[in-house]
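Cross-check.
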Amino acid sequence: MPDTDDSSLTNALSAVSTLIGYIGTEVATSQCFNRVVWPQRSYNNFTIHNAWKAALLMPLGGPLQTAALQTIDGLFKNGLMRGPRLGHMLGTCFFPDSALEYQLYENGARCGVGHVRNGIWPRILGDMPMMATRRREDEDEEQRQEDSCRKLSETRQRTPVSHLSIIMAESDSDSKKPVLIEGDIDTVTLWTILAIITSEITGLAVSIIVATVWKSAWMVIWLVPLILKLIAAYFAVPRHRFTPETLAEEEPSRASFYLENGQGIQIIEGPIHIVRPFFRHYGHPKRQRWNEIVQIAVVIAFGINFPVGLVVSILCMPVPLQCMWTGYVLYVTIALYVSRYTHGASWLTTEERISRSLIYAEEHPGQTRILFKAAEDCILCVELSRTMHNSFGLAKEHAFRILQLQSKAETPLPCS
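Predicted model, tokenized:
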């Protein structure tokens, strides 16, 4: 009779595990592997205060095979699997592509277009929550004039206009408190390793329980995600540092980069030789074939981890360990769902760190200076001002006023 009960329980556990694999394989996205292969950026905002997010909602011991296949497909599509220094990194897990374009303006006149590529600043502005501060009186008056002119009876779409200014930081004696944000292209630090371990602390805890209670070598199966993350971090590809550009004689020294991303309008302003490198090669991986192969192998290993674990749990594990494995995979799948729909892709990242600092400066005007350490010898000062408008057309008009285009326009902007 016990054998029959164990057999029935095993069949039930295998059915549940298969169901978890079916409903869970679609929840993970390729962004999971963006985090794995670029740990310096992915864990740049790891702190004691947000460690619970990493510990409870960021393990990767669940069904990842679909996300892994999509990631590997992208590597094949870009030609990285053909051989050393073949193919291109942009658009892969190594260097995701935003697929956005910017328009370049000088003195209010459009003077060129370009691709954003992996630009960090548009991603920061796009992911920031809506304005948390009250509008200034002049902004309220401007909004009333806009609404009166357009005769808007209702809000069509609350659209933010973000105006980001980037300049080289200079030492001054003002009363603002400097907030320094470290760059994310240096070598992996011990703090990053601690963040990775924290992200798999649940698997580590289960493996300790299995080793202590059952004294089973199967404890290793819960350590696989942590081992893979540490291997990927150790073999992280080196990346291009920030380097100011050398401008051609006909190029402007200062310009504004105008972007529309469907949810808002962004204007990034500053010396062109300082701003444009962020739209080009900042953070681009340097080609080192051995590191690339190891990290690609890690992605493949994550993809087959769940299927192999499922087979092993059914055929080899004792029933109590099958219960432990099935319960843990269910937990990880739920965590993946929660993180996917609560903006988990930005948790602990450089983008989140800069975003929070900008929001703090927005809520406490005149108190802080936000500094970004792009390189050892280059610290940038970043300032952001945002306004909110009741339609995309009104937001666009306001952005064009910032660009000083309104006085140069031959015809008024169309109503939207």
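The chain has 15 helices and eight strands. The first helix runs from residue 2 to 24. Passed to J.P. for a second look.
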